[in-house]
């Protein structure tokens, strides 16, 4: 007490010398003295004496004491130092505030997260469930969670879940399992349940805190992926081809069943470089070198090699592999296709093609030589006939008609031989290299060469190449096509009107070049507008000299270079030929 009120306080009024006692206590002294009722104050902060170390907390008790006549004679002040208890109480209060704040924060987090949180005790009774539970199940907040929860579990999962939860509580451990829980709309959705015990050693756990997370979509996706993978593997095992996959480093990690059946080796024997080891010894180094280069660069792999079958026979295969980048994972997918029969067939076809090419060349040479050699006897016959007609006379009323028929036959014979030679020459000219041609210049050259026929028939020619002035084509081929079409337009002109020929070069809607040759001549009778009569020696206007070779040559040249010819014609009005230099898509 001296340390509280001071060493010199004895004999003085407390009101005059309160020392470290609180001022509020001075007002209470008079009341206690007057009423005689005791007063107790808990944890009062008392200012220490000047020589004291710090402030202290005291429990203060004021008790009146009485004389012989039971009158209040004075007051007894009792002070108990409770500083440590008060510090502990304040610390506990602060911890309680922190705990309440953390609890509020935890509730906000758990009740806003997209999962259901819950608390169970050791007997399996549900002590808490977050609002997500009621929204998911559609149950009212007043429902008994302990009773209703097992009824919402799918019947096929109920016993397993209850058993695993009870076993975990008995052993004091957590759990992690999946089961189907009925949603508010009656659908069962897969849920992942996880919980951990609240441990306070050495006592056994009393509460388990956990969360329910909906994993229905993920589980269905995983099931679909598993089914898809199983189906793909089944498909790969059913295909009669060698199918394999490899890692990003090029090491093979999967073979289908056909690979093992074909090679006669199991997957362990094939190893990470299986198909390379099956190649013909003379091709293994080159095949492995290309494979390593493709793995390093990521470029697709393709090659044709011989592979050993289980009976030791090497058969030709086309080996293909491509890299699939699925996010950060790189994998190779490859196939080995048996093309041995096709390879042998290709060799046979190539041999036959070479023989046919030689026969075709020999035939062209023979036709050219025959037409060339026969022209001289024809010219001799022409000379002999002219001399005979000049010197000899016949007493025959049909003399003139017979001489005209013989003259026509000789002319037809000579023209046919000439056209056959031109046909062979045109075929050989088709091999000329393509170049960029000025279409207008080529057309003018052709028209200039036909100038005598143009003047003789008083023909008018219009040339329009502004829309497509250039063409990549063989010069001789283009000249031959235009020459035949223009000469035919002049030859088969209508007798009642002068020829009018239009040559127009333009681009189709697809941007491809085309050439149109239109006349106002005799026209033709067509049965198929896209496939007119282009056969060799076939003619429609037999009263006009000709051999039926010109249109055949046009179609042959255009088709051999990937184009096609279309014709539209009206008998007695004219004909339009349209040449598309490239084949439409």
Structure, briefly:
45% of the residues lie in helices and 25% in strands.
| CATH level 1 class label of the largest domain | Alpha Beta
Helicity level, as a percent range?
40-55%
CATH topology group of the largest domain: Heat Shock Protein 90
- CATH superfamily grouping of the largest domain: Histidine kinase-like ATPase, C-terminal domain
| Proportion of strand residues | 25-35%
Rough outline: elongated
How many domains comprise the coordinates?
A: 5
The number of distinct helices, counting runs of at least 4 residues, comes to 17
Distance between the termini: 115 Å
Catalytic activity: ATP + protein L-histidine = ADP + protein N-phospho-L-histidine
EC number: 2.7.13.3
Pfam families: HATPase_c (PF02518), PAS_3 (PF08447)
InterPro entries: HATPase_C_sf (IPR036890), HATPase_dom (IPR003594), His_kinase_dom (IPR005467), HisK_dim/P_sf (IPR036097), PAC (IPR001610), PAS (IPR000014), PAS-assoc_C (IPR000700), PAS-like_dom_sf (IPR035965)
């Amino acid at each position: 007490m001296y340390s509280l009120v001071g060493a010199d306080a004895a004999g003085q009024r407390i009101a005059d010398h309160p020392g470290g006692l609180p001022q509020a206590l001075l007002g209470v002294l008079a009341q206690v003295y007057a009423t005689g009722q005791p007063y107790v104050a808990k944890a009062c902060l008392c200012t220490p004496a000047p020589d004291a170390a710090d402030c202290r907390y005291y429990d203060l008790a004021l008790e009146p004491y009485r004389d012989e006549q039971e009158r209040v004679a004075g007051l007894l002040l009792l002070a108990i130092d409770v500083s440590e208890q008060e510090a502990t109480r304040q610390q506990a209060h602060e911890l309680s505030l922190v705990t309440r704040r953390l609890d509020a924060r935890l509730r906000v987090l758990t009740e806003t997260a997209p999962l259901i949180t819950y608390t169970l005790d050791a007997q399996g009774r549900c002590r808490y469930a977050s609002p997500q539970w009621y929204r998911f199940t559609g149950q009212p907040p007043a429902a008994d969670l302990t009773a209703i929860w097992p009824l919402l579990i799918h019947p096929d999962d109920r016993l397993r879940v209850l058993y695993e939860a009870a076993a975990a509580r008995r052993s004091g451990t957590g759990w992690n399992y999946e089961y189907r829980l009925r949603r508010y709309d009656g659908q069962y959705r897969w849920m992942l349940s996880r919980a951990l015990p609240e441990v306070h050693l050495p006592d056994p756990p009393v509460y388990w805190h956990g969360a329910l997370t909906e994993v229905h979509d993920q589980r269905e996706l995983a099931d679909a992926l598993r089914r898809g993978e199983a189906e793909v593997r089944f498909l790969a095992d059913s295909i009669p081809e060698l199918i394999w996959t490899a890692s990003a480093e090029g090491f093979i990690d999967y073979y289908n069943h056909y690979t093992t059946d074909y090679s006669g080796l199991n997957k362990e024997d094939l190893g990470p470089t299986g198909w390379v080891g099956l190649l013909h010894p003379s091709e293994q180094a080159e095949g492995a070198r290309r494979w390593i280069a493709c793995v390093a660069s990521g470029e697709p792999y393709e090659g044709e090699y011989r592979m050993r079958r289980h009976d030791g026979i090497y058969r030709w295969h086309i080996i293909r592999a491509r890299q699939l980048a699925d996010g950060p994972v790189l994998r190779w997918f490859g196939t080995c296709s048996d093309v041995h029969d096709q390879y042998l067939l290709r060799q046979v076809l190539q041999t036959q093609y070479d023989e046919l090419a030689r026969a075709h060349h020999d035939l062209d040479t023979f036709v050219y030589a025959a037409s060339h050699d026969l022209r001289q006897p024809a010219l001799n016959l022409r000379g002999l006939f002219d001399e005979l007609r000049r010197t000899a006379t016949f007493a025959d009323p049909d003399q003139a008609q017979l001489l005209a028929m013989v003259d026509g036959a000789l002319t037809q014979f000579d023209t046919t031989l000439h056209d056959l030679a031109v046909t062979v020459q045109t075929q050989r000219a088709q091999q000329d290299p393509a170049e960029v041609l000025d279409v207008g210049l080529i057309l003018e050259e052709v028209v200039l060469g036909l100038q005598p026929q143009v003047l003789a028939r008083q023909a008018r020619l219009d040339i329009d190449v502004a829309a497509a002035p250039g063409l990549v084509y063989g010069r001789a081929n283009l000249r031959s096509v235009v020459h035949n079409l223009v000469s035919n337009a002049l030859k088969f002109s209508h007798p009642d009107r002068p020829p009018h020929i239009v040559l127009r070069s333009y681009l189709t809607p697809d941007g491809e070049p085309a050439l149109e040759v239109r006349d106002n001549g005799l026209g033709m009778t067509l049965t198929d507008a896209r496939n007119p009569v282009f056969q060799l020696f076939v003619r429609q206007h037999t009263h006009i000299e000709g051999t039926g070779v010109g249109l055949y040559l046009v179609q042959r040249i255009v088709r051999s270079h990937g184009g096609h010819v279309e014709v539209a014609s009206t008998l007695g009005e004219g004909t339009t030929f349209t040449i598309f230099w490239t084949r439409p898509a």
